[in-house]
Design a protein that fits this description.
The structure holds two protein chains of two kinds. By secondary structure, chain A is an all-alpha fold. Chain A has one helix and no strands. Chain A has one domain. Chain A is elongated and about 45 Å long. In chain B, 37% of the residues lie in helices and 11% in strands. Chain B has a five-stranded parallel β-sheet with strand order 5-4-3-6-7. The chains are: A mainly alpha, B alpha/beta.
């Protein structure tokens, strides 16, 4: 099934925590990009 | 994106988030969805081009009808009965500030409305200790409710508020969260007022200017959490394909 994001109760605790994990990875990518930009 | 022109935080972070991910946003006012054209037909055409549909609209049933026909994820950017992106971002922000935000005790001060109901949804899924403070007649169902703010705030870690329409202010006489009240919460407690908050109404000016306030930077996480929601929903789509 297609995943939509309409009600939090459509998700489990583990699924919402995996969204947090994606957010963490995005922040890490963002930090790495800014470090590379500073070096260059 | 179906958004009011006046939306600030959620819209800015969705637009910036999509652009940073390499996408482009096209903005429509939400009333675009209230036309005579059947939503099945609107979505049928959008399926040709849209990779995600982000909607702020009063009626959640409209979003559910959109989801029924959409090939792309439908993301709720606020309805009259919830605001999932906002509260999920808040919990993520708290996870960066607190030792164990899932073990904290949460108090929502305000009426039964989209913000309170979103917190209740989050509390149900994440098994949070969650209570509401409000006068009689404004309670949410299936929540521990206090009608005295001084009792309610004792033993709590995270105090969430939501502003009120002007016509309801007379019913909420002891509603304002002040410095004095926050002193009765647990040590290290935080005040998380849902913006827009109003100094002198839901919160006192001095408490917003104090260390209890989570700060404006608390909401910066809306950006990556909303990006993460988009990625998460789209990844589910790829796995299924």
């Amino acid at each position: 099934m297609m995943k939509h994001f309409i009600r939090l109760t459509d998700y489990t605790k583990e699924e919402l925590l995996s969204v947090f994990a994606v957010a963490d990875s995005l922040k890490r990518v963002s930090i790495k990009i800014s470090c590379v930009e500073k070096q260059s | 994106m179906f958004f009011l022109e006046t939306s600030i935080r959620t819209r800015v972070t969705f637009e910036k988030g999509v652009n940073l991910l390499g996408g482009h946003t096209i903005l429509f006012p939400p009333e675009t969805l209230d036309k005579k054209e059947e939503i099945k037909d609107v979505i049928g055409y959008l399926n040709n081009w849209a990779d995600a549909i982000i909607v702020r609209h009063s009626n959640i049933e409209l979003l559910e009808r959109m989801a029924k026909y959409s090939n792309a994820p439908v993301i709720n950017a606020m309805t009259d009965v919830n605001h999932p992106c906002e509260v999920l971002s808040d919990l993520y922000a708290l996870s960066k500030l607190r030792d164990d935000c899932l073990a904290d005790k949460y108090l929502f001060c305000g009426r039964k409305c989209n913000i309170g109901l979103a917190w209740r949804e989050l509390a149900d899924v994440m098994k949070l200790d969650f209570s509401q403070y409000c006068p009689k007649g404004y309670e949410m169902e299936n929540v521990n409710v206090y009608d005295d703010i001084r009792s309610a705030i004792i033993g709590k870690d995270i105090i969430c508020t939501d502003s009120l329409p002007k016509e309801l202010l007379p019913d909420f006489t002891d509603y304002q969260i002040t410095l004095d009240l926050m002193m009765n919460a647990n040590k290290g407690a935080l005040l998380n007022p849902c913006p827009p908050f109003f100094r002198g109404e839901d919160v006192s000016a001095s408490v917003v200017d104090s260390g209890f306030f989570v700060g404006y930077e608390f909401k910066r996480h809306l950006l990556e959490v909303q990006q993460a929601i988009l990625i998460y929903c789209m990844e589910q789509e790829e796995i299924i394909c």
